[in-house]
Design a protein that fits this description.
Distance between the termini: 45 Å
Order of helices and strands: EEHHEEEHEH
CATH superfamily: Gcn5-related N-acetyltransferase (GNAT)
Mean pLDDT: 85
Radius of gyration: 15 Å
Organism: Teichococcus globiformis
GO molecular function: acyltransferase activity
Number of helices: 4
Number of domains: 1
Shape: globular
Keywords: Acyltransferase, Transferase
CATH topology: Aminopeptidase
Oligomer: single chain
Strand content: 25-35%
Strand order of the largest sheet: 1-2-3-4-5-6
Largest sheet: 6 strands, mixed
Helix content: 25-40%
Pfam families: Acetyltransf_1
Protein name: GNAT family N-acetyltransferase
Low-confidence stretches: none
Structural class: alpha+beta
Length: 149
């Protein structure tokens, strides 16, 4: 999809599952590589995309985005659900390039806007979002769909 100075950004495939599982583990998400490979395949069948940033070695970054119709807008909205850059690769523009590639994918999917959900304690992410053109519009609540026992 995008290539710059040895960095390639393209659709993530099951072959990157091991490296992506390691990257996600550094952010506190323990996902088995085989399960992750299946999830990456499933994302290709959904109104979604997973883009990976690759340099020389394991994945440097990942962005996962879904899009959906809303009542308040004529065009679908894209939502970034995962944006992650490895600790040693931060501050090199990789996150910015992942967001740019995600925005292009959202435009191709016919989306009119893109959003990213931010945990309340993620001030660095907030600064990054403002620097990459996002406007703060509030917060969200989540609820499990499984019975709480």
């Amino acid at each position: 999809m995008t290539s710059r100075y040895g960095l390639e950004i393209r659709a993530a495939t099951a072959t990157e599952a091991t490296g992506l599982a390691e990257l996600l583990a550094t952010a506190g998400y323990a996902i088995d590589a085989r399960d992750l490979a299946e999830r990456l395949v499933a994302l290709r069948q959904a109104p979604a995309t997973a883009l990976v940033a690759l340099q020389w070695g394991p994945p440097s970054g990942l962005v996962v985005m879904h899009w959906y119709p809303t009542l308040e807008a004529a065009r679908p909205r894209a939502q970034i659900s995962t944006l992650l850059v490895s600790a040693e690769d931060r501050r090199q523009g990789i996150g910015r390039l992942l967001v740019k590639a995600a925005a292009q994918a959202a435009r191709v999917a016919g989306c009119g806007e893109m959003e990213i959900m931010m945990p309340p304690d993620a001030s660095a992410l907030g600064e990054f979002c403002r620097a990459t053109g996002f406007a703060e519009t509030g917060s969200r609540f989540t609820r499990s769909l499984r019975k709480q026992g």
